[in-house]
């Protein structure tokens, strides 16, 4: 992450003199309304790049910041690295003034800076906020009074104040620039940096709900910050939801995903019981979903993936310890979900043994390494853990995924494998359906496979003695 030096920051701030300095909320809103406001987005991944396109589509001039030079070059050359974001989308944004850069000096020219960087867990399930801290340190020399700084990265309650505000305050003290925390009665004056938290609610692969229809929760350090952020986001989202503080907004995002984690853990546990009882859990859930009140359907699977659901519960569990509180319910749900790849591995081993095939040396083809259907996203994918579990049994494991011709290594995996063509299905002792991509023709796969273990209920309409559902 670029950090710059004093000379760089002074020159950048001098250059920012071309950006009109606003001193009132009315002036700030006017710049948003007229689309004169410059928007900077840090982190051009699954959250930041779609957000960039939304702002560009509404006429804002957006600058994208990222430390990955390959991403920056790709975007500036009019190409994309995220499926469903096409080159024509990038070209349309460029026509509205979009460009990408690794140079953080340009932060000084922005009216609003939105931080969309990763917030993963360490191997001990503790929050890793190094990306947030490094980013705020990088922009701190260039921020100025009248700017709005918003953290979108999912995190525990208190992060915005404890990290973003603290770093900006410490850096700003040297230049006489402070984070504004106005008294409740002050709703108009702007004489410092406005800071807010607004959690991303990105749902990769969702083709039903338009991004702009997802309400945007906003919590500022004071009323002007909240109103400024609502004005900005209100220009691209149909509805904004102001809350009383950044911590409230931070907790809101955690509640949303913990709710999902707990309910997924419930059906994952019930699935294991139902298998022993000879009951179809998917049929049970579908039947329960006919109740018009008091029930929301969640479905079991081989584990949970994506950045949010596997990570967010542990953020709150970690923070709760500061208050001497143990989140037993949340931790139990996390344990159930994390154990699912092992459960699936055991079902594959059992199915192979039932066919008289030893696990050691058995050829297993895993269908799908993305964490859910029809996305090009490997983050926290249970498929990666399943592959490693099967390899640990001595299986000869291959995979197929239309979105990933190759899988190298990441923070938690080092597979270094290439996708196997589906034409070779018949060569394998077992085919495991780990991700139910719509591109998979299940009837053909079942017909050609020797054994199919289905962890997604993808073969629910197919009757065959080859299928083992788990």
Task: Give your account of this protein's structure.
By secondary structure, this protein is an alpha/beta fold. It folds into two domains: 6-244, Rossmann fold, CATH 3.40.50; 339-469, Rossmann fold (3-Layer(aba) Sandwich), CATH 3.40.50.720. The protein is 37% helix and 13% strand. The chain has helices at 6-15, 25-33, 48-57, 69-76, 87-95, 130-139, 159-172, 223-234, 246-277, 281-288, 312-320, 328-338, 340-354, 382-392, 442-448, and strands at 38-42, 61-65, 99-101, 112-115, 148-151, 194-197, 216-220, 240-243, 363-367, 396-400, 406-409, 414-418, 430-433, 452-454, 467-469. The strands form three sheets. An eight-stranded mixed beta sheet has the order 3-2-1-4-5-6-7-8, sandwiched between helices. The protein has a five-stranded parallel beta sheet with strand order 10-9-13-14-15, with helices on one face. The longest helix has 32 residues, at 246-277. 46% of the residues are buried. The mean pLDDT is 94. GO terms for molecular function: NAD binding; oxidoreductase activity, acting on the CH-CH group of donors, NAD or NADP as acceptor; oxidoreductase activity, acting on the CH-OH group of donors, NAD or NADP as acceptor.
């Amino acid at each position: 992450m670029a950090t710059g030096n004093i000379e760089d920051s002074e020159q950048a701030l001098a250059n920012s003199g071309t950006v009109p300095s606003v001193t009132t909320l009315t002036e700030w809103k006017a710049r948003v309304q007229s689309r004169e406001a410059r928007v900077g987005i840090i982190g051009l991944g699954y959250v930041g790049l779609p957000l960039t396109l939304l702002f560009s589509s509404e006429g804002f001039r957006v600058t994208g910041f990222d430390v990955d030079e390959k991403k920056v070059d790709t975007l500036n050359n009019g190409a994309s690295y995220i499926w469903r974001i096409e080159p024509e989308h990038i070209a349309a944004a460029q026509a509205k003034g979009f460009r990408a850069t690794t140079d953080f000096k340009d932060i000084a020219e922005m009216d609003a800076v939105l931080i969309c960087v990763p917030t993963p867990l360490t191997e001990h399930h503790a929050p890793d906020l190094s990306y947030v801290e490094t980013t705020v340190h990088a922009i701190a020399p260039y921020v100025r009074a009248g700017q709005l700084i918003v953290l979108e990265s999912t995190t525990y309650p208190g992060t915005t104040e404890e990290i973003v505000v603290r770093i900006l305050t410490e850096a700003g003290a040297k230049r006489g620039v402070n984070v504004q925390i106005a008294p409740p009665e002050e709703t108009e004056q702007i004489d410092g940096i406005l800071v807010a938290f607004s959690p991303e609610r990105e749902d990769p692969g969702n083709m039903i709900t338009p991004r702009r229809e997802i309400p945007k929760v906003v919590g500022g350090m004071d009323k002007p910050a909240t109103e400024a952020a609502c004005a900005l986001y209100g220009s691209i989202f149909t509805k904004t939801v102001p809350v009383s503080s950044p911590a409230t907004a931070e907790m809101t995002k955690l509640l949303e995903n913990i709710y999902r984690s707990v309910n997924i853990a419930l059906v994952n546990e019930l699935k294991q019981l139902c298998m022993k009882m000879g009951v179809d859990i998917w049929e049970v859930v579908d039947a329960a979903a006919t109740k018009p009140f008091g029930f929301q359907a969640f479905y079991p699977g081989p584990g949970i993936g994506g950045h949010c659901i596997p990570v967010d519960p542990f953020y709150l569990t970690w923070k709760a310890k500061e208050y001497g509180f143990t989140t037993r319910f949340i931790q139990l749900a996390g344990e159930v979900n994390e154990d699912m790849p092992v459960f699936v591995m055991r079902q594959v081993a059992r199915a192979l043994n039932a066919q008289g095939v030893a696990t050691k040396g058995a050829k297993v083809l895993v269908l799908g390494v993305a964490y859910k259907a029809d996305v090009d996203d490997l983050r926290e994918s249970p498929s990666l853990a399943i592959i490693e579990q099967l390899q640990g049994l001595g299986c000869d494991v291959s995979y197929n995924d239309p979105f990933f011709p190759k899988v190298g290594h990441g923070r938690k995996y080092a597979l270094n494998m290439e996708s196997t063509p589906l034409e070779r299905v018949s060569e394998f002792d077992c085919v495991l359906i780990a991700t139910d991509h719509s591109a998979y023709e299940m009837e053909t796969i079942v017909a050609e496979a020797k054994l199919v273990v289905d962890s997604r209920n993808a073969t629910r309409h197919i009757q065959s003695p080859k299928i083992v559902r788990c």
